[in-house]
Amino acid sequence: MQEKQHGKRPNVVFLIADDHRGEALGAFGNTIVQTPILDGLANSGVSFKHTHIFGGLNGAVCAPSRACVNTGKSIFHTLTGEDLSKCDQTFDIRPDVKLMPQTMREAGYCTHAIGKWHNDKPSFARSFEGGDKLFFYGMSSHTKVPVQDFDPTGAYPKEREYIEETFSTELFTDAAVQFVESYDDERPFYLYVAYTAPHDPRTAPEPYAAMYQRDQIPLPPNFMKEHPFDNGEMSVRDENLASLPRDADEVRQHIADYYAMITHMDAEIGRIVEALQAKGIYENTLIVYTADHGLSIGQHGLMGKQNLYEHSIRIPLIMSGPGLPQGKPIEELSSNIDIFPTVAAICDVELSEKTDGVSLLPLAAGECDTVRDVVCSVYKDIQRMATDGQWKLIRYYRSPISDTGTDCVQLFNLRDDPWETTDLSSRADCAEPMEWLTAALENWMREMSDFLG
To answer: What sequence ranges are listed for the domain Sulfatase N-terminal (predicted)?
Structure first.
C-alpha cells in the first residue's frame, strides 16, 4: 500500500473513456485485448470488477452517465427536464448540484480539464479553473476534432472552436502530459482527462490498427444474428452500424477495430504515467480509470449501448494511489454514482451535500464485505435492471411514447451464465430470486424518483 505524504492530499488524475466495456481489459479477464498499462494500474491498486452504470433516459447514454460520475447522484436528481416521463431529460446538470471537480476546487485543488465534456457548459465552468483541448460534443472524427481553449468567461461560443487533426487520443494525452510537466503550483491538482476512444469511428492509427486480425478474433459466446425480441430500441443509430442479420465476420472486424482503439488508448495513458513518474509525483497521485458505459458489438445481436445487458452497463473502475491496497480485485457490486464519494474519501475532501452514491473506500480497505446488496440501472421508459451479483432481472416495457418495446422479463444466473444466454424467468425453481429482485427494483425506483416507480 502506498502511503500518503504526511499532511498532503494526493493529486488526482481522473481518466474516463468513451464506450469501454468492463470486460475488455486484460486485468478484467479478457485474454485477447492488450492493455498492459491499465493492467499495471490494477496490479498496483484496486480494481472494482462489478461496477454498473446508473443509465439514462436517452440514446446518448454517455451524457447522463458522465453526469452520474461527476455528481454521485441519480439522473432523476441531477439532470434537468420538463417531463421525465416523456424522456425529455436534457444533458444539463442542475445549477444547485455540486460536481466532483467543483467540490475538489472548493477544497483547494487546482482543477484542470482536457477532452470531452458532454454536459452543459455552465456546470463545466463552475468546476474547472483551467483546461485545454476542450470538446463539447458527443463524438467526431478522431482526426478532425473541434476543440476550444479554456474560456475564463465560461461561455464557450461555437466561433471559438478550431479543428485539431492530431488523433484525438494523442491530442488529449499531449495536453495532459504538458499540464503535468509544467505544473508548479503548491496546491494538489485534479486533472480530468476525458477520451473519445474507443467510440466509433474506430480508426486507430498504425501500428495499432494492424494488431488485431479479424480471423483471430473469437466471437463472444452470446453472439446472435438478431436480438430475439423488440427491446424498444432496435433502430437507434448504433444498431445500424452493422448489417442485419449480423454477419460473423463483420462483427469480428468491429471487435478487432474496437480492441485496436483500446490498446492505442492504453499506450497513451502510459505516457501520462511516465510524466507523473518523471515529475517525481507518481507516488502521491491517485489515478482513477473508468468509462461512461460499455458496448454490445454483436453480443445478443446488438451493436450499441442502449440496453441493460452486462456488456453495456458494466464498466471498468480502477483506482491506484496512496492509501489504497495494491493488487486487490473486488468482486462486490458498485455503481458509477459511487465514484465521486470514493474519490472524495481517499482525498479527505468533505462532501458539502449528500450523494446517492456511497464511498467504496471501506470496501477497498477491507473494513466491510459489501456496500450494496443490489445495483440497478435504467434505460429510457423501456428497460429497468436489478442484480444482486448472482441473479439479474431485466424488466422490459412497451413505450407509450415510441410505441416500441415488449412487455416481458428476463432472469439470468450470472454466476453460471455470465454471458446471459439462458433466460430463467419462466422456471418455477427460480421464483424466489424473481420475487426478491422485482421487489428490490421497485423499492430502488421509488428511492431514486424514477417516474416508472
So the answer is: 10-346
User: Whats the size of the chain, residue-wise?
Assistant: 453
- Indicate the Cα dihedral angle 115, 121, 122, 127, nearest 10°: 0
How far apart (Å, rounded) are the C-alpha atoms in residues 224 and 214? 18
Instruction: Tell me the chain's radius of gyration from C-alpha atoms.
Output: 21
- How far apart are the C-alpha atoms of 300 and 302, rounded to whole Å? 5
- Residue 453: pLDDT band by 50, 70, 90 thresholds? confident
Cell numbers 424522456 correspond to: 87
Over 33-66, what HEC string results?
CCCHHHHHHHHCCEEEEEEECCEECCCCCHHHHH
Q: How confident is the model at residue 76 (pLDDT cuts 50, 70, 90)?
A: very high
- Evaluate whether residue 353 is within a structural domain: yes
Q: Which amino acid is present at 342? A: T
Domain encompassing residue 30 = 11-373
Q: Say what the pTM is.
A: 0.97
- For 247, list phi and psi in degrees, rounded to 5: -100, 130
CB 65 within 8 A of CB 74: no
Structure letter (DSSP) for residue 84: G
User: What distances in angstroms separate CA 12 from CA 49, 83, 303, one per listed residue?
Assistant: 21, 37, 34
pLDDT, tens digit (0-9, with 9 covering 90-100), for 167-196: 999 999 999 999 999 999 999 999 999 999
Domain count, the chain: 1
Give the model confidence (pLDDT) of 232-278 as tens digits. 999 999 999 999 999 999 999 999 999 999 999 999 999 999 999 99
Q: Which grid cell sits at 430? A: 427460480
Q: Does a structural domain hold residue 404?
A: no
In a domain, 356, yes or no: yes
What CATH number is associated with residue 85?
A: 3.40.720.10
CA distance 297 to 420: 15
| Residue 227 and residue 300 in contact, taking contact as beta carbons nearer than 8 Å | yes
> Residue 302 domain-assigned?
yes
**Is residue 260 within 8 Å of residue 208, measured between CB atoms?**
yes
Contact 223, 421 (CB under 8 A): no
Per the omega criterion (within 30 degrees of 0), is the bond before 146 cis? no
Measuring CA to CA, which residue among 258, 251, 205, 267 is closest to residue 20? Answer: 258
